[in-house]
Amino acid sequence: MDKALQTMIDNMPEKTGKSLDEWKKLLKAKAFAKHGEAVKYLKTEYAVTHGFANTIVSLTNKDDSETLDDLLTNQYKGKENLFPIYEQLLSVVKTFGTDVIITPKKTSVSIIRKKQFALIKPATKTRIDLGLKLKDKPTTTRLENSGPFGTMCTHRVRLSMLDEIDVELIEWLKESYQKAL
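Given the sequence above, the corresponding structure tokens read:
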């Protein structure tokens, strides 16, 4: 398990008032149909921050036999050539601070500070879509509108090669991280 995620789980009782197991029992009893409904419930009814709520719901909804490594393996099945791009993106965001939380889901990986600031999704066999939250930043040819990410992100960058993780992209990632307070 990712060290940051394990730290988040360890801190959950202090930060949210309940352990992960307690949250799982509560959510399973409610049986929400959609991920977003459960996140909204935790935020509204229990004042849980978005990062914790999203992680709690993700870990509650995932098949208990499916590990975080399995989620990544399934995301990159047939797209193994993109995995080095994913690894490099994680390497970059981990340098921003010890408060970066990496949460794999079924089809993407959320990168969270207090709020989600990036989303990594292997979109096709040849491309990763990197979603960023950069409110009020104009789009460019490279820094597109959010596209399929909808409101989860404000912008999207399409990545097909490692060398596309350049100074410009790292600055956008850093800016998104800094705004995720």
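The chain has two domains: 3-61, 70-179. Try to locate this feature in the token string yourself.
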